[in-house]
Design a protein that fits this description.
The chain has 4 helices and 6 strands; from the N terminus they run E-E-H-H-H-H-E-E-E-E. The chain is α+β, with helices and mostly antiparallel strands.
């Protein structure tokens, strides 16, 4: 996905990633690293009393795993540039398999051998439902001349 120099991308270009299943270990490990032990993620009895009726994955965990599904080349990416319009739309449960759908929305030449690629990213689960949507930006290297 992010494996070629800036000038080789076109607005409208799109990709779909491979999938990854969310596990209970993912949730427990993320809670330990982030310090987010909110009962909706960690307490089955609490979660049964919510609108979700079961534990859900942390939104930031799903976003992080989704980022890990991006194919990225260190020779191409100069830096992560930012996220805009981030929305957590639907819950992700233990056992859901998520994947990415990406579409290039803008290409901004920054000069000095760099450019910013902007793309709309949706993280979807096996049902086809979008669970997270955001606008991502990366600073990419141009071809060496």
């Amino acid at each position: 996905m992010l494996t070629k120099p800036f000038e080789e991308y076109e607005i409208g270009e799109s990709w779909t990633s491979s999938g990854r299943t969310i596990t209970e270990s993912d949730i427990v490990n993320f809670a330990g690293v982030s310090g987010d032990f909110f009962p909706l993620h960690m307490d089955s009895e609490y979660a049964k009393q919510t609108i979700f009726k079961q534990r859900i994955a942390h939104g930031l965990l799903v976003l992080s795993i989704g980022t890990g599904l991006l194919e990225m080349s260190p020779n191409v990416i100069a830096a992560f540039y930012g996220i805009e319009k981030l929305r957590f739309i639907k819950p992700t449960f233990i056992g859901d398999t998520i994947f990415l759908e990406l579409k290039v929305t803008d290409l901004i030449d920054k000069g000095n051998g760099k450019g910013v690629i902007a793309f709309h990213q949706e993280i979807k689960k096996q049902t086809g439902e979008t669970v997270v949507a955001a606008e991502y930006k990366f600073l990419l290297n141009k071809k060496e001349r």
